[in-house]
């Protein structure tokens, strides 16, 4: 899902960043790589530089020595991210295999790196006979993004199982934070300072592994029949205006009532299976997808007087002439 940093550094004053502008690292720099291959929508321009840190120490040293005018953007699994066609200036930080470890920590806790996929954490918990993580199997994305937006599904959210997080400030300082410090709400993280999550510890409840697995299978079956999981999509597009309340207004229903089911802009379409999903049929641009989303928002506002908030994170710049 999603950014692990709440805010970028101040906008860069130069037009382009090169590895020569950046600190020496143990990790890897990749220049001018299209973000279309790193996001689930399969759209987006190039990043000036993508940085793949080897571990938290490498990331910390990088941030300590990075020039203050170079912005950073954190990209996780790319499941709930729309990368604009004009690309991303500065450095895109991608937490890879060095941040993907998952391990049991005592009898009830699991520690997972920010790059670990949510579904892998759920599977690890099931194997350990720990309940409470089943909802993660229904959330595409990684743990860093789950913490950054308090991701949730099927009546549960990240805050329900979170014990503490490990993070690094944009100045390179390492911190450990409790959920209270993050001020987590419905699809929001209220931590006041820009920060990058590197790992998290979660707590489950011992239960029968077979029962847990059956619940995860049920979630998988439900997703497969109600969501366009095999399409190029970014997951839920808009937040439910009613938040987590089961009786509050649902984004999909408002979109459907506004007559937007199946609505298209170019190769981008509102899913006919689930109206809160946008689909790239293969050749859509990021501009097509964003225009479609804004059209949906306008129609919902006109028909229901409700202003939908984007749940998908949009990064980068609009292409010239778009």
Structural class call reads alpha+beta
> What integer value in Å does the Rg equal?
19 Å
Shape: globular
Q: How are the strands of the largest sheet arranged?
A: 6-7-15-11-12
Strand content: 25-35%
The counted number of beta strands is 21
Uncertain segments are: 6-13
The percent range for helix content is 10-25%
- Helix count equals 7
- Profile the largest sheet: 5 strands, antiparallel
Q: What is the name of the CATH architecture of the largest domain? A: 2-Layer Sandwich
Count of domain modules: 3
Q: Just give the CATH class of the largest domain.
A: Alpha Beta
Distance between the termini: 26 Å
CATH overall fold name of the largest domain: Uridine Diphospho-n-acetylenolpyruvylglucosamine Reductase, domain 3
Give the helices and strands as they follow along the chain: EEHEEEEEHEHEEEEHEEEEHEHEEEHE
Overall mean pLDDT: 93
Structural description of this entry:
- It contains 7 helices and 21 strands.
- It is of the alpha+beta class.
- Helix 2 (118-127) runs antiparallel to helix 5 (209-226).
- The longest helix has 19 residues, at 286-304.
